[in-house]
Each structure stands twice: as C-alpha cells, then as structure tokens.
Design goal:
There is one protein chain. The chain is α+β, with helices and mostly antiparallel strands. It folds into 2 domains: 49 residues; 132 residues, no CATH class. The chain contains 7 helices and 4 strands; from the N terminus they run ααααβαβαββα. It has a 4-stranded mixed sheet, covered by helices on one side. Helix 6 links the parallel strand 2 and strand 3. The longest helix is centred in the first third of the chain and has 46 residues. The N and C termini lie far apart (63 Å).
C-alpha cells in the first residue's frame, strides 16, 4: 500500500476498501514481506547518511567558530599562555606529589605541557623524566620509542614502566599507546599553577554566579 500511495497518490484508506476481499498466496505474502524489509533497510541507510552529513556540518561549524576565536587571541601573550597551562594543570596535573608533572594518553596535551614549560620557565629539558603506564600486552621498549619520538624527549629520559596486570588476556587497540607521565620535578611551578587556576576560577565564579 505504501508503494501505491507514494507512486500514485491513492490513500491507504481507499486501498483498504479496494483490496479487503483480496486473498494473497503465500508467495505473494513472502514477496510483500521482502519488499517491506528492503524498503526499511533502504530508509535506514538513507537516514544514517543524512545524520552523518548533518554531523559533519555541525563539526565543521564548530571548527570554524573555534578558529575565529583563536585568531582573535595573542598566543605570544605569556600571561594568557600561563593561565591556559594553569587550567590544564588543574584538571590533568599531579597535585599530591611535590613535583610538577602531568600524565596523559594524548600526545597533544603533553606536547603543549612541554612547549609551555620551555616558553614560560625556560625549563632545562635534560631534567625531564618520563614514566609509562601500559597494558599487559604492550611492549615497553616499543612504547618508549613511540613517546620519545612524539615528545622529542631522549629515550634515556624514560625510566619506570608499569604493566597493568589487570589487563592480562585483554587485547589492546593498536591506536592506544598507554599513558605517559612527564615529570619536571620543580614543585614551585606546580604551586604557582595551582594558585593561578584556583584564583582565576573563583573570580570567574564570583563575577558570573555571584557565589
């Protein structure tokens, strides 16, 4: 009925009156069922394609908006750069130990951390140490080389590697390279970043929430 309605514009209510006494053979019923399934599959594929296209448009729009904001910022402004680092450190950095360090599975975060350390504090990269937390089936030496190349940190700066025994028997996705912890040891930087992020957040909250 859907096919007739779509093709000829005849309402299904009218068709019901026409065909109410028609008896279908088992072959005809099977054919109608197959047509119905094929139509449903085609409709689902079309819907997925439409949603994917809309998602791509939304992602592109978000990227364009972000690009325009970045264009308006002066990333050479060290105050802005240090505030950005402080907010990152507030979320991702080590707080319990008396050292400035951060761990992540995302090389981009760690590269930003190293770039800002160098730019803001002229930190001596010879003092950088790296540790890895890996899954049981990952090769420590291979992962050291991966992170050494990604971060441009000498492989001799990589020390402790922890293999998570809880993951024994579970296969690791190829794109996952474990968690790398970058340690610079200077607790003074940690203290400054934490105070900077906390004071800034409190000022924003007070200004916009009145709390």
């Amino acid at each position: 009925m859907n096919m007739i309605e779509n093709r000829y514009g005849i309402p299904r209510s009218t068709q019901s009156g026409w065909f109410k006494n028609v008896r279908l053979t088992s072959t005809q019923k099977k054919k109608l069922l197959q047509n119905s399934k094929s139509t449903l599959i085609a409709a689902r594929k079309k819907a997925v394609l439409w949603h994917n296209t809309q998602k791509e448009k939304r992602l592109k729009e978000a990227e364009n908006q972000a690009t325009e904001i970045i264009k308006s910022l002066d990333i050479a402004d060290k105050k802005l750069l240090e505030l950005t680092l402080a907010i990152l450190y507030m979320g991702e950095g080590t707080k319990r130990k008396l050292e400035t360090s951060i761990g992540s599975s995302d090389p981009l975060i760690l590269k930003f951390f190293l770039a800002t350390l160098k730019t803001l504090y002229n930190f001596d990269f010879k003092k950088i140490k790296c540790q890895l937390n890996l899954r049981a089936d990952q090769n420590p030496e291979k992962m050291k080389h991966f992170w050494s190349k990604e971060l441009n940190v000498p492989i001799n700066n990589f020390g402790y590697v922890n293999l998570d025994k809880r993951t024994i028997g579970s296969k690791t996705y190829p794109q996952y390279k474990g968690v790398c912890h970058v340690l610079c040891g200077n607790v003074a930087i940690q203290r400054k970043l934490m105070y900077l992020s906390e004071i800034f957040c409190r000022k924003v909250i007070k200004k916009y929430l009145g709390a």
